[in-house]
Every structure is written in C-alpha cells, then in structure tokens.
Amino acid sequence: MEASRMTITALNNKRDLRIIESPEEMHACAAELIGQGQRIVFVPTMGYLHEGHLSLLREGRRLGDVLVLSIFVNPIQFGEGEDFSLYPRDFQRDVDLARSVGVDIVFAPDVEELYPPDFATYVEVGGLTDTLCGRSRPGHFRGVTTVVCKLFNLVRPRVAIFGQKDFQQLAVIRRMVRDLNMDLEIRGVPIVREADGLAMSSRNVYLDSGQRRQALALVESQRLAAALVAAGERSSAAIIAAVRQRIEHEPDAVIDYVQICDGDSLADVEVVTSNSVLLVAVRIGKTRLIDNHYLFEEIS
Ligand code: AMP
Question: Which of the listed residues 43, 45, 91 should we mutate to test ligand 1's pocket, taking the one with most ligand atoms within 8 A of CB?
C-alpha cells in the first residue's frame, strides 16, 4: 500500500506516464488517488491523436492534479458497415503525444474487458438523440453514453473534457450527467481546425488529395452561412439551401444532413437567433465528416 502510494506521488511529481490496461487496476488507482485528495481530470478518446485531442488534454492539464487519457475504439458505437475495424490506430505515437502534453495515465482497456460476453446494460439518452447523427446512425449514441458512463465509473473524474467538434455528443453527455445525477463537471472545448479550416478528425486520413480538397466544402459552406447571417438573413430554409448548394457542388460529396438547431435543445429552428447552430454531416467518398458552428460567431 505504502509503496504504491509513493509510486503515484512520484508519478505526479515527475510527470511520468503510466499505462493501465485493466479496468480493475484503473479502478483501484482512481480510488487511491482520490484517497490522497487528488483531483482527477479525464479526456476520453478513440486515439489516433491530433491537435484537437491535444487541446482537450492541455485544457485538462490546467484543471486538476492527475490527467487521465483513455484510448478505446468503442465497438458498440459503430453501426453495421461502419469503419470500426478500419479505424486508424497508432498506440505508441499516441503515448508519445500524451507524454508531451503532460498526461499522467493512459487508460487503454481491451474490448473484451469492457464488454464481457454476457454484457447486457446500456445507457440511453432520449430526445436529443432523435435528430442529426442520432437519426442517421441508429444506436450510435447509446454506444457512446454506455462507454462514457463505464469510463466515468472506472476513472472517477471531477472534470471530463469533450470537443465541440462533436456538438451533439457533448449535449447528450451533459444531459446524461444531469439526468443521472453524476457527480462531475463536463467541459466543452472549441473545434481545432487545420490551417485551411477543415475541422481536425482522426478520419481525415481516409481522404485522398482530391477528397481532401472537396472536404473544404464543409467549412466553406459554414463561412457562407455566417456571411449570410451577417448580411441580415434569418431564414433557416434560405441558409440551408445555400449551404446544400455549396456542398453539392463537389462531385464526391453526399449530404447526410444540413440542419440549423437550437444550441441547447437541438430542435430545428426556422428563424436564426444568437443560439442557433449550423450542423452538417457529409460523406466524401466513404468518409463521413461532421462540422458545426454558431451562426453568429466567426469561424477561426
Ligand atoms: P474521438 O477520438 O474522435 O472520439 O474524439 C475524442 C474527443 O476529442 C471528443 O470529445 C471530440 O469531440 C474531441 N475532438 C475531436 N476532434 C476535435 C477537434 N478538431 N477539435 C476539438 N475537439 C475535437
């Protein structure tokens, strides 16, 4: 007991990094840290880290004593025919990047450990998941909320950090935490973009150079929408039509949805207000990309 306590203290002082694979070990480690009065901050990811993930981790580093990153490609949030087996993975590179931003613990459980064969319990948020990605990816958010709930129980953070890139996911997780009286704070971090504006995503590696160029239609259509709003347009239908036209200009782009929603309830809005968000999901070839922004804000 005393020895392992010293290990954890040394780990925090030297900013060394510990890799934990077993859920039991993660649970025991969290209990010990909490017993020592340490404040745990948590960033859940599916790995293949990029600057977007690193901005969440840098924010996390500021907010607590022990920064935990999870890397877990969660099979139950992928639908039939989606890219679970193809999803990019590079654990060693992720660990090096995690170390560079001061992560203390990388939690990387095996699928079989989180989902034993008789696993049968799911967390499902209603309402908010009936629209947007929830409509086009049935079961996706049930997979997300189930794994995030499990990870919260294992890591026991005071704060967990999510990206606004996955706008609906952030809203759904906030609702889960509120509805189930979970005892932690959820923080959202702004979208990190490439120099040309494309929202960073692990899936961007799927794009060949022509598709990569076409993918700019997502951010360009968002800029177009922001310009229309700045010029006084308030009709969602008119803005959506202009956005669709811009995206459909690209030969390989197939729109999944273009919606303008209230930033809290995610209900579609007819007249744009300062709380309205434009959300788009587009397939470029086989790659599904999402983006969003508040229509009254400028895009970085
Ligand atoms: P993922 O690994 O794709 O599941 O993402 C893990 C977390 O990183 C989620 O909270 C995402 O919203 C967040 N994230 C992914 N891409 C970005 C980005 N470009 N900017 C900010 N956060 C992001």
Answer: 45
